[in-house]
């Protein structure tokens, strides 16, 4: 009996991880309440996190291509989501507010796999946040306390070799995403 339960939990966990890693669209969660409907990988990610009921809320602008960048980006009531294909075919970066923290999530970087990630953040008051090397792999998350009223913009790059002496970050920095703390 115990073995069957463990296998079921493991299989369920792997299936859920597989669904999230490929960005399978969840059923829209109150998506009909938003005037602008996100689509594609950004829309899939937004719906998987709860759509209009997620930490992001509704989209405030249509998806667009940032100037001089490859990828797509969309602003929401409480953050931004971007597709950053130079760092992975289905790479999503997202910034949102969760309570008093600015949360930054990224992944999957497939087909790339990194020894570590480095996050950089820039505050609207001129301050900077440079995260210590974070565990590698194909995805990650970073959260930091940010004062009310400040905007923080995040980037991440995946790197190999020893930090910081022989740092090799071949795919470069992602498209930046921001959140303004309320």
TrEMBL record:
Full protein name: Secreted protein
InterPro entries: LGFP, TAT_signal
PROSITE patterns: TAT
Secretion signal, residue range per the UniProt entry: 1-26
Pfam families: LGFP
Species for this entry: Acrocarpospora macrocephala
Keywords of this entry: Signal
């Amino acid at each position: 009996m115990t073995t069957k339960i463990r296998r079921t939990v493991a299989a369920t966990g792997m299936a859920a991880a597989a669904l999230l890693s490929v960005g399978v669209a969840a059923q829209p969660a109150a998506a009909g309440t938003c005037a602008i409907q996100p689509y594609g990988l950004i829309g899939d990610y937004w719906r998987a996190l709860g759509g209009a009921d997620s930490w992001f809320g509704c989209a405030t602008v249509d998806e667009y291509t940032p100037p001089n960048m490859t990828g797509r980006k969309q602003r929401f009531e409480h953050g931004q989501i971007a597709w950053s294909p130079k760092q992975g075919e289905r790479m999503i970066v997202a910034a949102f507010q969760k309570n008093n923290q600015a949360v930054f999530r990224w992944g999957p970087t497939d087909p790339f796999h990194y020894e570590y990630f480095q996050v950089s953040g820039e505050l609207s008051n001129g301050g900077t946040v440079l995260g210590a090397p974070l565990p590698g792999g194909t995805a990650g998350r970073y959260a930091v306390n940010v004062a009310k009223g400040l905007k923080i913009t995040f980037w991440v790059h995946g790197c190999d070799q020893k930090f910081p002496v022989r740092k090799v970050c071949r795919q470069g920095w992602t498209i930046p995403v921001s959140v303004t703390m309320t």
